[in-house]
Structure prediction request, 924 residues.
Amino acid sequence: MSKRIELKSLNVYYSKFLAVEDVNMVIEPKAITAFIGPSGCGKSTLIRTLNRMHEVIPGAYVEGSLTMDGEDIYAAEVDPVKVRRQVGMVFQRPNPFPTMSIKENVLSGYKLNNNRMSKSDADELTEKALVGANLWNEVKDRLDRPGSSLSGGQQQRLCIARAIAVEPDVILMDEPTSALDPISTAAIEDLAVELKEKFTVVIVTHNMQQASRISDMTAFFNIAGTGMPGKLIEYDRTEKIFSNPTQKQTEDYVSGRFG
Amino acid sequence: MATTFYGIQATATLPRWFSPLALIGSLALTTAMFVVSGFTDESGNLNLLAIAVLGFALYMIMTYLISRGVEGRRKATDRMVTGWVSAAFALAVVPLVSLAWTVFEKGINRLDAEFFTSSMRNVVGEGGGALHAIIGTVELTTIATLISVPLGIMTAIYLVEYGRGRLAKAVTFFVDVMTGIPSIVAGLFAFSLFLILLGPASAINGMAGAVSLAVLMTPVVVRSAEEMLKIVPNELREASYALGVPKWLTVVKVVLPTALAGIATGVIIAIARVIGETAPLLLAAGFTTSMNYNPLSEKMMTLPVFVYTSYAIQGTDAASYVDRAWAGALTLMLIVMLLNLGARIISKLFSPKG
Amino acid sequence: MTTLGGQVKPKVRLGDLVFSRAASVAGIGILITLAAVAVFLFIQALPALNPEADFSGKAENPISYVTPYVFGTLYGSIIALAIATPLAIGIALYISHYANRRFSQILGYIMDLLAAIPSVVYGLWGIMVLAPFLNPTYLWLNENLGWIPLFAGQVSATGRTMLTVGIVLAIMVLPIMAALIREVFLQTPRLHEEAALALGATRWEMIKMAVLPFGRPGIISSMMLGLGRALGETMAVALVLSPASIINFALLTSQNSNTIAANIALHFPESGGDYRSLLIASGLMLFLITMLINMLARYIISRRAEFSGAN
Prediction:
C-alpha cells in the first residue's frame, strides 16, 4: 500500500517561470514528511507535482524524474488520472461536494468514475473510510445529510475519508489545518499520525510546531527573493531539523529569526 | 469647503416631516389652481400630467429656497438631487402600475373558458379564442428551448472549462454581439433560411419561427450558464481531479450539478423573454385563424402575434377583436410572471447551501 | 492538461476528447449562426440592389426608400435615450445609494418585471392608454410652445406621435440601462465614498466626487446598449406610431418617420418579389447599425474592465 517516492533533479515550471529548482529527495513510506518554509517558497507547488495536479494549470509542467516505488509517474504512457487515483489529496480549505450527502461524498471517488457497487459494499466502505478518518461516531446517524452541514473540522475529516476511501498509496495534505480552529487541528493531527500506519503521508504546513509534533522527516524550502525559484535547503529527520540543523537558513527559520 | 460645517448656520436642519408635507402641499396647491382657473379639457377632466409636473416643480423650487435659507446652499443642492432621484424612481413605477392595471382590467373581460378552448376559425364577431395561438406558442417555445439549451450550455462549458486563446475570445465577443440582434432581424434570418431550404410556397411555418426564437434565446442561455459555471468554486474541480476523475466527468458530475439551479433559473428567464417575442414570429411563422399542430408545415399562430393581429386587423365587430387582444395580452403577462416567479423559486430552493 | 517544452504528452482519454470537441463545436456553432444571419440576409437582399428591380410601385430606388426609415429609427431611439438616460441614472442612484437594502431589492424586482413585459403589450398600452393620456398635453405644448419647430405643425388627434413612441421606447429600455448603471455604481470603491464623506461632503457631493466619475464609462455603455435595444424594437413602434415615409423632425404630428423594424413588420406579411428583398435589405441595414453600436458598447466596457481592475 504505502510507497516510496523519489524526486531526482526536479524542476517545476509555470509556463516560462521556474517555480521550484532542482529538488532531490526520497520520501519514505509509512512516515509523515513535512514541507516547511516561508510563503512562496514552492512547497505547495511541489506537493502538487506528486499527484500530477500541477499540470491542471494551463502552461504548467515539470522536468526531471519523479518515481513511486521505482515507477516513473511522468512517463509518456502514464495517465495522470490513474496517478491521482493512487495519490489522495486533502486541500487547504475543506471542499466537500455541496450537491452530495456525507455518504455520497465518501463514495465520490467511485461514483464519479461511474463505478457501480452493491449497497452492502458501499455501506461497508463508507463505514471503513469514516472510521479511518475518525468521523464515524459523529456522523453515523446522518449519513444522508449534505456534506456541507458539518463543521469545518468535520468537513476536513470528511475530505480525508473521501481521499482514503479509494485506497491510495500516498496521502498529500496541503496545509490541511490552516482554515481550522485549534481543536479541529488537533483532531486532524491525530488522524495524520494514525494514517502513516498505512500510507505515505506528505504534509505542507506553515505551522512549525505542527511539523515538529507529527512529522518524522522535515524538508525546509526557501527562496532567495521574489521571482527567484524555490529550493530545497535541507531535508532530514525532524528532530535534527528542529534541534541541530546543518544550514544557517534553516536554523534562522525554525528558531523564528527569519527575515 | 468643510469649514461651513462648523458654522452655526449649517447645523440647522429642516425637520423630517418637511419634505412629505411640502410635496403634498405643492400638489394640493396646483390642483386648486387648476380647479379655480377652470383649466380643464372639453369634457371637464383635469390634466393630471400637468398637475403632477407643475406640482413637482413647485415643490422643488420651494424646497430649494427654504432649504437654502435654513440649511445653506450645499444641503439645498443635496435636497434637489434627492428629489430628482426619487422622482425618477416614481416615474418608473407609474407606467408599470398603469400597464398592469390596464391589462388586467381590459383583459379580464374575455378571459373565459371559450378563450382557452376554441380557435378563431370561422369567427367573425364575438366569441372565439386563442387556443390555436397558445398551442403554437407552447410548441415553438419548446422547440426553441430544445435547440438553444444544449447549444447554449455546451458553449458555456466551452468558454468556462476549455476555451483558451483567440477562439474563446471571439466566441465571448460574438455571444455579446448576438444578444444585441434585433428580434425582427432574427425573424428575417429564419425566413430567408427556410425560403432557401423549402422554397417560397412553404417557407413560413412553425419551425422557422422556432429557429428565430432559438437565435434570440441561445446567447441569453450562454450568458447565464457561463455566469453560473464561473461561480462554481475551483476547489471542487480540484477535489474531483485529485480523486482521479477525468475532466469531462468532473464537468458532468461535479460542476454541472453544482450550477444546476442557477442554470435552470437562467433558462426559465430566457424562455420568459422569448415567449413574448412578436416580430420574428409574425415574419417567420406567420398568422392564421386555425389550429395547426404541425410545426413543419403551414403557418402557425402564436400568442403574441394573436395579440398583435387581433388589434391591428380588426374585423367588422371591432370591440370584440380589441377585447380578444387584451385577453391575449393578459394571458401572456400571466405566463411571463409565472415563469419569472418559477425561476425565483427554483433559485431559492435548489441552490446548494454552504 | 498542457505540457510544454518537450515534456511528456499525456494520452488523451476518449471521453475527454469527445466532450471537449462537442463543447468547441457548440462554441463555433455560435460564430457560424451569426455569420449565417448576415449571409442569408445578404443573399435574400441582393435582388433589391439590382437596378432592374421591380418594387411594384412601392419604392423608387432602395436608397430613397430606406433613408426616411433610417432617420426614423435613429430619431425615435435618440428621443428615447434622451428621456431614459437621466431617469436610469436617477433610478440606479436610488437603488444603490438612497433606498435601504430591503426596499432596493423590491425596486430590483420591479425593474425585472418591467424588463419582462412583452413589447406587444407595451404597444397595446401605448396606443390605448398612453397616447390618449398625453394628447391634451401635446395640444397645450403646440399652442404655447409651437414656435419651437419640434412642437410645430398640425397636432395629431390620436397622440400616436414620435414623442409617444420615444416615451414608450424609453420605458422599455429603462430597466436594462438602470440595471447596468446600478452594477457599475455598486462597484464604486467604498474607500473613495468614505473618503468623500469623511471630508464632510453631503450625499450628493459624495456621489459627484466618487460615484459619477467612476461610473461614467458604465453610463456611456449602458446608453449604447439602450440605444441598440431601442433601434431594434419593433412591435411597440408598429402599434403606436402613425407612420409616413418622410423625414420629419416634428414630434407631435401624425406624419412621423417610420422605423426600419416597424416598417418591416407592417409590410412584410403582404410583400413579395423584389419589394420583399428590399425589406430584407433594410433589415440587413438595421442589423449592421445595431451590431456596430453594440460592438462599440462592448469595447467601452472591456476597456473599462482592463483599467479599473474592478471586475
User: Anything to note?
Assistant: Residues 3-99 of chain B form one domain. The longest helix of chain B spans residues 73-107. Chain B has 14 helices and no strands.
